[in-house]
Amino acid sequence: MKMLLRYLEPFIPRMSLGLAIKFTGSVMDLLLPWMLSRIIDEVVPQKDMGLIALWGGGMVLASLLAWITNIVANRMAAWVAQHTTETIRHDLFTKISLLSCAQVDAYSIPSLESRLTSDTYNVHQMIGMFQRMGVRAPILLLGGILITLTLDPVLALVLICTLPFLGGLMLGVSKKGIPLYQELQKKVDSMVRTVRENISGIRVIKALSKTDYEKERFAGVNEAVVEQEKKAGVTMALTNPLVNLFLNIGLTAVILVGAFRVNAGLTQPGKIIAFLTYFTIILNAMMGITRIFVMGSKGIASGNRIAEVLETPEDLTTAPAEQAETEYHVEFQHVTFSYAKKEPSVEDISFALKPGETLGVIGATGSGKSTLAALLMRLYDPDSGLVSIHGRPVFSIPPEELHTKFGVTFQNDVLFADTIYENIDFGRGLPREQIEKAARCAQAMEFISALPEGFQHMLTAKGTNLSGGQKQRLLIARALAGNPEILILDDSSSALDYKTDAALRKALREEYGNVTTVIVAQRVSSILHADHILVLEEGKALGYGSHQELMDSCEIYQEIAKIQMAKEGA
């Protein structure tokens, strides 16, 4: 709630005005039954048509004022809810963008997606409901009780006796409801995760005829969401029938007591009619309060989940450190790292690259190749050891400076639904000649030139209207376009034929020879001419040296090279 109050603070003047207008409209609603009671009991017996018309006109005016003020106040409430949620969503998106990879792993992407969508929607609904009903319902409830006390205190006391039961009911139900809705959002996270996996792997699912299996898996998580929502909904739904029960018991008691009092001449029929109208108003106010409790339970649960992300402390902080004198551009010194802090993903890795040198990293899937690239860019901090650039530990380099040093293509990189030019530029405002140079070097200019729109050709999301090799070439062009100090190519040529791969490596040497390069590859041919080659297996370095040195000394590298070169020769 503290988080929500902080975001609502700038809108307090507008909210105050809206609440004042809502208060005026609610008072007008309360005046109508009282005016009707006066007309029946005092004005009509006088048989003065002018006086009846005057009071009738007053009722029409009060009705119009109530209608107009409620519309204006509701529009203002909607505006505040909209802009508050917009700000929360913006800050949440920004915070998610700044989370470290370890923090994103801890929350999970599906959970962050649902917090950014369904949770912010619940908060939006709660803010709007609190402004629309949060003033109106209590005013109608308390105002109705106060006016009934002035009309007939005895009948009002019959009504008031039901209120403690109603208050206890709502308090008990809401205490149970909030944890249930928090658990519901976790189930929604699980469903979003399953949908993401199905969408991402749709081709594999179809190719392996696993559609029925995935349907059953989705049905399972969907059923879990339904069951949890049913459990939360049934718990909160207890309020409506029980509130109706208590109030209608009170209404029955009011009618019985009122009948006896009218018969005894202790009250008048007009007051009974007004009293019944106020009772209806009070009933609707109580129903409104129950809706507030239901929506509030959802909104508070969602608000807590949002606040959890917004209040997440930064874990990759920049710390001062001395810059060592060194001839090396990139250094790893006895680096060990594990994702789950159990079994190391890479263990005791050391190497050093001079400016312009190329390191090839090869090994089986899961051997830790991509982890080295992530540690170099400080997407994660090592558990032990030191990663440095030009003698500066990466933890001492501010992120805005560190990340401009790199051009990178990841294993599962993304192209956006935009033009080829914008996908290479990536919002950096680069000169066109740099983009064209990068496209030529990446061997992408040939197929770009063949397209009718050239660089203005529109791509679909994830570049599904391109082949695998074309996508990889565009991603390499994006990495090169910013003239990086360090180029990281993480298995980025796996879809290229050997001729294109060779042309790419030649162009890199000629056009970007001063760039220090790290190539993560599955093929020996992609790293054959690298200055240094690191052979990994289960996170450990089994060999380090040039191609020829490894062919002489590293048995695993020899096996990989012989198998792959035999296939290439075939």
Features:
6-stranded mixed β-sheet; alpha/beta; 570 residues; 4-stranded antiparallel β-sheet; 21 helices; elongated; Rossmann fold; 10% strand
Textual characterization of the structure:
This protein has 570 residues and is an alpha/beta fold. It folds into two domains: 2-193 and 223-310, ABC transporter type 1, transmembrane domain (ABC transporter transmembrane region fold, Up-down Bundle); 330-412 and 486-569, Rossmann fold, CATH 3.40.50.300. It has helices spanning 2-8, 12-43, 49-98, 101-107, 109-151, 153-160, 163-200, 202-207, 211-237, 239-263, 269-310, 369-376, 399-402, 420-425, 432-441, 445-450, 468-481, 498-511, 524-527, 547-553, 555-569, and strands at 330-337, 346-353, 358-363, 384-389, 392-393, 406-409, 486-490, 516-521, 532-537, 540-545. The strands form two sheets. Strands 6-7-8-3-9-10 form a six-stranded mixed beta sheet, sandwiched between helices. A four-stranded antiparallel beta sheet has the order 2-1-4-5, with helices on one face. Strand 7, helix 18 and strand 8 form a beta-alpha-beta unit. Helix 2 (12-43) packs antiparallel against helix 3 (49-98) and helix 5 packs antiparallel against helix 7 (163-200). It is elongated. The relative contact order is 0.08.
Identify the overall geometry.
elongated
Class of the largest domain, according to the CATH hierarchy? Mainly Alpha
| Spatial order of the strands forming the largest sheet | 6-7-8-3-9-10
The biggest sheet, with number of strands, parallel, antiparallel or mixed sense and barrel status, is:
6 strands, mixed
Number of self-contained structural domains: 2
CATH evolutionary superfamily of the largest domain = ABC transporter type 1, transmembrane domain
CATH architecture of the largest domain: Up-down Bundle
Radius of gyration: 35 Å
Poorly predicted tracts of residues: none
Q: Specify the structural class.
A: alpha/beta
Q: What helical percentage do the residues reach?
A: 55-70%
* Through-space gap between termini: 68 Å
> Helical region count?
21
